[in-house]
Design brief:
about 475 residues; mainly alpha; Growth Hormone, Chain: A; 19 helices; about 75% helix; about 0% strand; globular
């Protein structure tokens, strides 16, 4: 097997592992009514099927990224796959609500380990600018398309089998990913100075992130205030410790900071779209679980095509900024369009156009967002930067979902108090939340287009691709062959 084929095989394994993780942030949404019925969850406790995963996932991303730099990204990736797979068995066979919530929390730990280092491993495998852009297109589809695929798969598995299979399906995938990753990922023997883990910093930032996620999903202002205090203490500690968990110089890099802001806003819009669109289809249009899953198929197909066949070509032709702005603008248009969907809406005229626009926008935008975030980082801090990138997406998604759902609830209650029917009031709440999501996506486009500072375009090769000068943080290299 040639080096090129080895790199691409490693990429496919990494993407499959990360897709398994990303799926679990949305795959349970459609199955929640069945889970509630079988395990006797109360309405308020049911949210913990989602929240337990978000808490541990969001809280341990930075620590996992730093452990990847210190212990080796491959070791952390493999350990995360094991944790996630074992926890999936526990979730799928859970006989009680308490055990399911515990299993979801352990899934979050494994998911954090896998996601925090997968991007760093990919950046290390692909140093050629054209090859890296194509690889990041694959990874971008996993990050952006995982939510849509999760809703699709969750609906199909729940509708045709049972909710247990939304977790058990991870088991053969996890075993396969572990075996393949053990063989194809580069060894971790290149680490010269492992250093020490900043345990106090890890405790502070993990506690702060977990408190913030908990405060967001449970609408607890005191917990949010506590998370802000802990973050302030963390920043003070990191400025003084010899080997910090997160070197503060990372946040002096303009593209890193801007990409985090863009990521937060973009994830807020994306998480809310997947969640609210599924609710609109179920609660307003009356779709069942299988129908909702199949309804998301067009989004998944368009997103896959644009991520794998369009995004990398746009980045190589125009750099990272124009496709980022265009993709986020399409997403904003998608959310604005669905915000007009009526109570008696039609899938073909009121939902499908929005799904196609979102698929195109997400497929185009994620590649340049990830390249911008990782391009200025030194190789020995790639795991940490990967953890920071994933943290921004995760926290943005959790925050955006909480804010937009709260807006939707407030609007629904207000309209009901004004005398509208329950269904009309519910739809009015969804419309306001979609409109707010459109504003978030548009703000991400404006901020990215205004403040990102890509490197100057280099000379074009025969294929119309820029040389390494246009690709952030990568050396000169030969043009990459097609992975096929």
């Amino acid at each position: 097997m040639t080096d090129v084929k080895s790199r691409w095989l490693a990429l496919y394994v990494l993407c499959l592992g990360d897709l398994m993780i990303v799926l679990d942030s949305s795959i349970v949404n459609v199955a929640l009514p069945s889970i509630q019925s079988d395990l006797g969850f109360s309405q308020s406790a049911l949210a913990w099927v989602v929240n337990a995963y978000l808490l541990t996932f969001g809280g341990f991303l930075l620590l996992s990224g730093r452990l990847g730099d210190l212990l080796g990204n491959k070791r952390v990736f493999l350990g995360g796959v094991v944790f996630f797979t074992v926890a999936s068995i526990a979730c799928g066979l859970a006989p009680s609500s308490e055990l399911l919530v515990v299993g979801r929390a352990i899934q979050g730990l494994g998911g954090a380990a896998v996601s925090a280092v997968a991007l760093a491993l990919i950046m290390g495998l692909f140093t050629d600018p054209a090859e890296r852009a194509k690889a990041m297109g694959f990874f971008g589809f996993v990050m952006s398309g995982g939510g849509a695929v999760g809703v699709l798969l969750g609906g199909v598995l729940t509708g045709l089998l049972s909710w247990h299979w939304i977790f058990l399906v991870n088991v053969p995938i996890g075993v396969g990913v572990w075996i393949a990753a053990s063989r194809v990922l580069p060894a971790d023997d290149a680490i010269e100075q492992r250093g020490r883990v900043d345990m106090l910093g890890a405790v502070l930032v993990t506690a702060a992130l977990m408190l913030s996620v908990y405060g967001i999903v449970d609408s607890a202002p005191l917990l949010l205030a506590g998370s802000v205090v802990l973050l302030a203490v963390f920043v003070l500690w990191e400025s003084r410790v010899a080997e910090p968990l997160v070197p503060l110089r990372l946040f002096t890099l303009r593209n890193v900071v801007v990409s985090q802001v863009v990521g937060v806003l973009w994830a807020a819009a994306m998480f809310a779209w997947f969640f609210l669109a599924a609710l609109y289809l179920q609660q307003v249009l009356g779709y069942d679980a299988l129908d909702v899953g199949l309804a998301f198929l067009p989004t998944s197909v368009v997103m896959a095509f644009c991520s794998l066949r369009v995004s990398d070509k746009l980045v190589l032709r125009f750099g990272i900024r124009p496709p980022l702005v265009a993709g986020l603008a399409l997403a904003a248009a998608s959310l604005a369009l669905v915000s007009r969907a009526p109570v008696d809406g039609s899938f073909l005229t009121d939902v499908l156009p929005s799904m196609l626009l979102l698929g195109a926008g997400a497929g185009i935008a994620f590649n340049p967002v990830l390249l911008a975030a990782m391009g200025d980082v030194e190789p020995h801090e790639a795991g940490l930067a990967s953890g920071v990138v994933n943290t921004s997406f995760m926290m943005g998604g959790a925050l955006g979902l909480a804010v937009l759902v709260s807006l939707s609830t407030w609007r629904t209650e207000s309209l009901a108090a004004d005398g509208l029917s329950p269904l009309e009031a519910l739809n009015g709440g969804f419309q306001l939340a979609f409109a707010a999501g459109a504003v978030a996506a548009l703000a991400a486009a404006v901020i990215g287009g205004t403040f990102l500072q890509p490197k100057p375009m280099g000379t074009m090769d025969a294929r119309g691709a820029p040389d390494a000068a246009d690709a952030p943080g990568v050396p000169d290299a030969e043009p990459c062959p097609d992975p096929a």
